[in-house]
Design a protein that fits this description.
The complex is a heterodimer. Chain A is an alpha/beta fold. Chain A has 11 helices and 4 strands, in the order ααααααββαααββαα. In chain A, the strands form 2 sheets. Chain A has a two-stranded parallel sheet with strand order 1-4. A two-stranded parallel sheet of chain A has the order 2-3. Chain A is globular and about 55 Å long. Chain B is built from 8 helices and 5 strands; from the N terminus they run H-H-H-H-H-E-E-H-E-H-H-E-E. By secondary structure, chain B is an alpha+beta fold. Classes of the chains: A alpha/beta, B alpha+beta.
C-alpha cells in the first residue's frame, strides 16, 4: 500500500481514533502491551462480564436465605462462589433494599463500580450530573430514571470513595412466587443493582 | 510546589444538569473507546504506576470538565506515559516508536488476561495497630485543604458522622498516589445525616430522609 493510500484510509477517522491507534502502535512496538490482550480485554467486558452476573447474585439471594445471609456476612466470598471476582470487585459489600430504606450507589470522585458483577459503568454513572446530584438530591435523580419512592422511604447513598464496591440487593417483586432462579434473574436490571431503578414486574402469566 | 487542584470532586455541586439514562448494552459510543479502555488496563498491568497515581493523573487534567470519560482516561494515560518517558510526544504524533523502550515490570499477555482480571488487586492488608474507631462512634471529618490526591470528598469535610462499619486496614490512597508506598490505614464507612451535609432550607425536602456514607481512612477522622 502506498503512503497516499494509507493517508486516504485514515482520512475518515476521527482525530481521537487516530491518536488511540497511534498510541497502540507505539506501545506495541515497544513491547509494553500485547495487542491480542486488548482484544481479550474488550471481548471480556462485552460478552462475559456484565450485569447478568449481578442479576444471578440477586436471584440467588431471593431464593436462598442461606446465600442471602452469606452476602450479608461476606459478600466478596458469596459472590465469588458464583464465579464472579477480581478487578474492581475485590472487596464487595451488598446493601439490601427494604420498604423503609432504598439504597443507591455513586462514586462522586471518579467512576468506581463493581465490575465483576455489573461490568463497565454506563456513561451516566461517570457523568457530572449523576456524581454531583446523587448525594444531595437522589429523589430528583431517581425521578429522571422514572422511579418514585414512597414518601416515607429513606434514601441511603453509598459513595464509593475507597476500594470497597457496592451492589444493591433490590426487593423481590410481588407476584414472583412461581418463578425459578433464571426467570427471577431476568427481572433484575442493571439500574436496580445500582439503585437508580427497580426490578421489572413479572410477566403476566407468572402472576 | 503549586496548589493541587482536583477537577473530579463533584459531590453536591450545582448546575450539571439532568442525568441521561441509557440501555444496558450501550457500553461504548465511539470505535476508539474500547481500545482506549483496554490500553489503559493493559498499561496499568505493566506496573509502571498504581491506580491511585492514575486517578491523580485524571483528576488534575486541566480540561477534565469538558472531556468525555474515555477521553479523560486516554489523556491521563498519555500523561502518565510521557511523564515516565515510556513514550514521547514525537512518537505519539507519528504513531511509531522512535526511542528505545524503557523496562516495565511485566507485560499482560492475551493468555493471562482472564487470570489477571479474576485476581484483581486487593487492597486489604494485615493490621499493624488496632482500629481507633468502632461502629456507632461519632467522628468529625478533616476540614482542611489536602495538597495532593485524596479520597476525602469536599462535601463531607468538617462534617459530623457515625462510623457504621470497620472495613479493615487498606492501602492508603493518599500515600499510594504520592509514591510513598502502601502505608495501610484503617478504613471505615462513615455515614452522615442528609441534614448535616445539606443544612440549607432549599435542600430540606430531600435531606430529611437521606443518609449518605463515604469510605474514609483513619487519617481523615477525628473523634467527635
Amino acid at each position: 500500500m502506498s503512503e497516499h493510500d494509507h493517508d486516504h484510509d485514515h482520512s475518515e477517522l476521527s482525530p481521537m481514533e487516530l491518536r488511540v491507534r497511534a498510541l497502540e502502535t507505539v506501545l506495541a512496538d515497544k513491547g509494553y502491551i500485547d495487542p491480542a490482550a486488548l482484544d481479550v480485554l474488550i471481548d471480556t467486558y462485552q460478552t462475559r462480564i456484565g450485569p447478568r452476573n449481578g442479576a444471578r447474585v440477586v436471584a440467588r439471594a431471593w431464593v436462598d436465605p442461606g446465600f442471602r445471609d452469606w452476602l450479608r456476612r461476606d459478600a466478596s466470598a458469596a459472590i465469588a462462589s458464583l464465579g464472579y471476582s477480581g478487578r474492581q470487585g475485590e472487596h464487595m459489600v451488598v446493601v439490601e433494599n427494604t420498604p423503609a430504606r432504598h439504597n443507591m450507589v455513586v462514586c462522586t470522585l471518579c467512576s468506581c463500580y463493581p465490575w465483576p458483577v455489573l461490568g463497565l459503568p454506563p456513561t451516566w454513572y461517570k457523568s457530572a450530573p449523576y456524581r454531583s446530584r446523587a448525594v444531595r438530591e437522589p429523589r430528583s435523580v431517581l425521578a429522571e430514571f422514572g422511579v418514585t419512592l414512597p414518601d416515607a422511604t429513606e434514601v441511603r447513598v453509598w459513595d464509593s470513595t475507597a476500594e470497597v464496591r457496592y451492589l444493591v440487593l433490590p426487593m423481590r417483586p410481588a407476584g414472583t412466587d412461581g418463578l425459578d432462579e433464571e426467570a427471577l434473574a431476568a427481572l433484575v436490571t442493571r439500574d436496580s443493582m445500582i439503585g437508580t431503578g427497580l426490578p421489572l414486574a413479572p410477566p403476566a402469566r407468572a402472576r | 510546589m503549586s496548589r493541587y487542584v482536583s477537577h473530579a470532586d463533584l459531590g453536591g455541586q450545582r448546575g450539571h444538569g439532568r442525568v441521561v439514562p441509557e440501555p444496558e448494552g450501550d457500553l461504548f459510543h465511539a470505535p476508539w473507546e474500547p481500545r482506549a479502555l483496554a490500553l489503559t488496563l493493559a498499561m496499568g498491568a505493566t506496573g509502571s504506576w498504581n491506580i491511585d497515581m492514575s486517578r491523580a493523573a485524571r483528576e488534575t487534567l486541566p480540561d477534565y470538565a469538558r472531556l468525555t470519560y474515555y477521553e479523560v482516561w486516554f489523556e491521563a494515560l498519555v500523561k502518565l506515559l510521557v511523564e515516565r518517558e515510556l513514550a514521547l510526544p514525537d512518537e505519539l504524533l507519528l504513531g511509531r516508536a522512535l526511542h528505545r523502550a524503557r523496562p516495565v515490570t511485566r507485560t499482560l499477555w492475551a493468555a493471562d488476561v482472564s487470570t489477571a482480571l479474576a485476581k484483581g488487586s486487593p487492597t486489604l492488608r494485615e493490621a499493624g495497630t488496632p482500629p481507633r474507631f468502632a461502629p456507632g462512634q461519632a467522628v468529625r471529618m478533616y476540614a482542611g485543604e489536602v495538597p495532593h490526591h485524596t479520597r476525602l470528598p469536599r462535601y463531607v469535610r468538617g462534617k459530623r458522622g457515625t462510623v457504621v462499619r470497620v472495613l479493615g486496614p487498606h492501602v492508603f490512597a493518599d500515600a499510594h498516589a504520592l509514591g510513598r508506598g502502601e502505608d495501610p490505614r484503617w478504613l471505615y464507612t462513615v455515614a452522615f445525616r442528609g441534614t448535616e451535609l445539606w443544612p440549607r432550607r432549599a435542600d430540606a425536602g430531600e435531606a430529611a430522609l437521606l443518609e449518605v456514607s463515604v469510605d474514609a481512612w483513619e487519617p481523615y477522622l477525628e473523634a467527635a
